Amino acid sequence: MITKEQQKTAQKRAADMIRASGIQITDEEAHGIEVVDFGLSSLEKEGVQVLTLVQTDRVSIKVLVLFPNQTEPEHWHPPVGEDPGKEETIRVISGTVYFYIPGKSTFSKGFMVDGKDNYYTMRNEVVMKPCDQITLQPGEKHWFQARDDGAVMYSFSTIARDALDQFSDPNIERITKIFDE
Amino acid sequence: MITKEQQKTAQKRAADMIRASGIQITDEEAHGIEVVDFGLSSLEKEGVQVLTLVQTDRVSIKVLVLFPNQTEPEHWHPPVGEDPGKEETIRVISGTVYFYIPGKSTFSKGFMVDGKDNYYTMRNEVVMKPCDQITLQPGEKHWFQARDDGAVMYSFSTIARDALDQFSDPNIERITKIFDE
Predict the structure, then answer these.
(1) N or C: which end of chain B has fewer CB within 10 A?
(2) Which of B56, B61, B130 sits opposite A24 (nearest CB)?
(3) Cα separation, A75 vs A38, whole angstroms
(4) What DSSP line would sit under A41-66, residue for residue?
């Protein structure tokens, strides 16, 4: 969980990074940025900030922000009814993103989240710079990380059903609880 | 049809407008910009420039460029097999876009392409500025236009099958012929 104050601070920080990357957003969009701590209450270490631009029954367009040295935990998009699961293309806009997908271990430039080796099992490393893209098939496990410069990305995908995403870490809850202090 | 020289000039002009709008693209992407004259051989009047960033079996992401006072002709996205047709969200990045969709006539700020009244039948006007979005359902007729400042937009959609798009103007051919002079 995070406090309302943490949420507000993270929203502002993410909006500033989005705008600095060249992506224009409205103030209303900035105030709607979702701050996700995955129920781990350690936002700066494991978390992501998400601005949803488009959400229909068929397409989802998001801007994702990673603060410096923040990691989005390993997860995958399972089938839902007749949908084979979310197909997602990530395009980096600013910063460097360390992306981990299935394949042989080439882990070298990213860092492991302290004591979480068991929950970050994909070790095939793809280092992505601005304009680099990667497409994830439904069910493909992935996690990603920013280093000191943080990162801003687009996520272009089929319908997103975030609440149904599955995570390697059993302690994760996808929906972040916000509380008043 | 257009000449190779026209194509090259239009690609460069479109790439410059895309970059000036804040969207970063690679040189390879810039060289892949599709210059579309709709077979009308009057690119500056009726045409569009298209950079495809993502094209999978489920999602299509494009950057669309309209030069100053260029109009993309009225068209719609028909059903294809079990697909109900392309659903498309346009988000304006730079410039003002005059968008025409079904509904009562409110045509006032755009201009009619000379002698083409019969081929531009949608007259419900939506004036769109940067960060404005519109979602078009499958089969919904639409056309759009830039004035003196030109325009850059994202098109976020389900799978694009451009060659199957349908146009009000029977003279249109979606695939542009490029020839060496």
Answers:
(1) C
(2) B130
(3) 11
(4) S-TTTB-EEEEEEEE-SSEEEEEEEE
Q: Do A156 and B54 touch (CB under 8 A)?
A: yes
Res A180: pLDDT: 81
Minimal Cβ distance to A59: which of B22, B29, B59: B59
Flag if A56 and B26 touch (Cβ within 8 Å).
no
The interface predicted TM-score of the complex, written ipTM, equals: 0.95
pLDDT in tens, A30-66: 999 999 999 999 999 999 999 999 999 999 999 999 9
The answer to whether B168 touches B122, Cβ cutoff 8 Å, is no
Q: How many CB atoms lie within 10 A of CB B168?
A: 17
pTM comes to 0.97
Task: Write out the two tokens for A164.
Answer: 């149904």
Chain A interface includes B158 (CB < 8 A): yes
CB proximity A27 to B under 8 Å: no
Contacts of B137 in chain A (CB under 8 A): none
Residue with tokens 């079904």: B102
When pLDDT is cut at 50, 70 and 90, the band that residue B18 belongs to is very high
Report whether B148 contacts B82 (CB < 8 A).
no
Best mutation target among A60, A135, A140, A156 (most B Cβ atoms within 10 Å) is: A156
